[in-house]
Description:
Layout: E1 18-19, E2 25-26, H1 31-43, H2 52-72, H3 81-89, H4 98-101, E3 114-118, H5 127-131, E4 135-139, H6 144-154, E5 175-178, H7 202-212, E6 216-222, H8 224-227, H9 232-243, E7 247-254, E8 262-263, E9 265-272, H10 275-280, H11 310-319, E10 330-333, E11 339-342, E12 345-346, E13 357-359, H12 367-373, H13 386-394, H14 399-417, H15 423-430
Parallel strand pairs: 3-4, 3-5, 5-6, 8-12
Antiparallel strand pairs: 1-2, 6-9, 7-9, 10-11, 10-13
Amino acid sequence: MTEKKISDDLKLEAFPEDVTEDGIKIYGETSYENQIATLSHYLHNTDFEGTQVEVQERRNEMMALIREFLEHKEQLQNYTDEDIARAAECPLEFDLFREFYQVPFPSPKTYDHTFIDLFAGIGGIRIPFDEMGYHCVFSSEWDAKACQTYFANFGTVPFGDITKIPATKIPKHDVLLAGFPCQAFSIMGKMQGFADTRGTMFFEIERILKHHQTPYILLENVKQLVTHDGGRTFEVIKEKLEQLGYYIKWKVMNALDFGLPQKRERVIIVGFKHKEDCDAFTFDIPHTPYNLADILEPDENVDPTLFASDHIIARRREKTEGKKLFYPSIWHENKAGNISVLDYSCALRTGASYNYLLVNGVRRPTSRELLRLQGFPEKYLIAVSNQDIRRQTGNSVAVPMIRMVAQKINEIIKNREYGTSETQRLKATVNA
Length: 432
């Protein structure tokens, strides 16, 4: 396992907006975003180690970040150099950083295992690991609104474009999590695969794994990844992981099996550096029934702007004539304009039409209902508009599905630490 303390620097100068052919680093519009990302990661990883000189260098970097932060907030004049030095050592003592710590999912004060959260979205994959006391040492997400939601819930601003971040600047970690962009492989995204820039993001994962040799990995994507290009795309991904020394297992899973009223099929890939760990892992799960009524809010509590127009409601009713109607239900309109009346939601999608899902045929889901359809805890904060949440949940994961996989990985890690690596014993423990 990696040490509790973070030995790799996350230096601001390592993240310029661009680098010229002459090697000149350019800091422009995105520089402040990277600065805040660096500061927030520092604030959650203040237990520096190394020589006295190295620790002081890190402390000086953090003090510089705090000064820039104060200057941006026009508060620098209110703090002395002594205040800033103390803030760099004990940031919890300062109300200035309250927003970084008073969040629904704070970093654990003590921990044994670490992870990184790539293509983090709004943090759906990390939540189960937070629940188990794992510590996030690095996160990356390029969508600004998703970063806003992420910060509100975890107190960390993810770094931006992962393609511009050297693997050497990413801290060592025990588990790599990545819900790498799925649009290039999805039906709605035209399935261009590696021909789509978003489809090449897997190779960023490969680059980081090659450098760090991370012991455990958990990847998530759309089910079409498995069959894309006649299965050749998936074979490339498996081959790349195996060449890095990973033993892998995968399965297409459905959110409906995890107590969520949403038909969302996703492929989950897990990887292990030890064959016996991989042999011990299974995707066997008990089916958990779902109930649409559990996630719906009373209509009287719903924002009136979420109700469809009289014209749209009338059209939906015309198209469902002769069909068996029941309530509560989700009325789903497909690309051909056909309406299905279901006791669950079809997969939430980022680019779908505004009215493709209507609760009881009359209104769009609320932000909280969208989060519930993905299994996010009730304490998860909504920090953006309903339109943004629609897009973010459409890009996110079914949290209970990830939770089951995370718990099984955790059991394997714990058994390896305690020396019980025999395959049959691991299987019995993990699947108990």
